[in-house]
Amino acid sequence: DIQMTQSPSSVSASVGDRVTITCRASQGISSWLAWYQQKPGKAPKLLIYAASSLQSGVPSRFSGSGSGTDFTLTISSLQPEDFATYYCQQANSFPLITFGQGTRLEIK
Amino acid sequence: QITLKESGPTLVKPTQTLTLTCTFSGFSLSTSGVGVGWIRQPPGKALEWLALIYWNDDKRYSPSLKSRLTITKDTSKNQVVLTMTNMDPVDTATYYCAHIPRAPTILFDYWGQGTLVTVSS
Question: Which residues contact B1 (CB under 8 A, 6 or more apart)?
Fold first, then answer.
């Protein structure tokens, strides 16, 4: 099974900061990676797909990069509404679709 | 506008079978490439994919839960149903259904609000 490991598990940052979250796959997954944002009590929201493609309607301060085993989600300038938990998801190892354990982004 | 909504019991007893219905609008499960998936999230924990079904009735299951899951669709009613047998307290979670825009890429671009299912005697 392909495991997805996110780091850090939590991070504190201030409005305006640049933040990077990493997701590492235990095996190569090409570019089959998506990123989601989840706020408390809400469903996840798709931010990035195919590692670097921005979902329609998502602000351009969000960006994704990587391929193979190492991927990053970057928020260029944190806004108050960005404080949430972020998950990566791989879909290369079908039939098993796996999510990372999540990264909680908190206000410093 | 695509919307999905989960429905089903909020409380089930151990060993019972859970049946959840996802009712959707804004797309058709007869459209080539489209699918619907189920994902769950125990309180305070990460997301876990359970199952998905495609427009062509192709069905896929999480290997660890495959023996307990069944997913079906009713295209005329715009519904997808997930059943999970032999429920256990560890299955307590919020269950989400989500839209898959185009096979074979598995990503979930629209989600339901989720429904919390508690397993307790």
Answer: B25, B26
**Chain B, 48-67: which have a CB under 8 Å from a chain A CB?**
48-49, 52, 60-63
Q: Which amino acid is at B18?
A: L
Q: pLDDT digits over B53-102, tens only?
A: 999 999 999 999 999 999 999 999 999 999 999 999 999 999 999 999 98
A95 with B114: Cβ contact below 8 A? no
A9-23 as b/e: b if 16+ CB within 10 A: eebebeeeeebebbb
Q: What is the pLDDT of residues A28-72, one digit of tens each?
A: 999 999 999 999 999 999 999 999 999 999 999 999 999 999 999
Token digits for A71?
């991927």
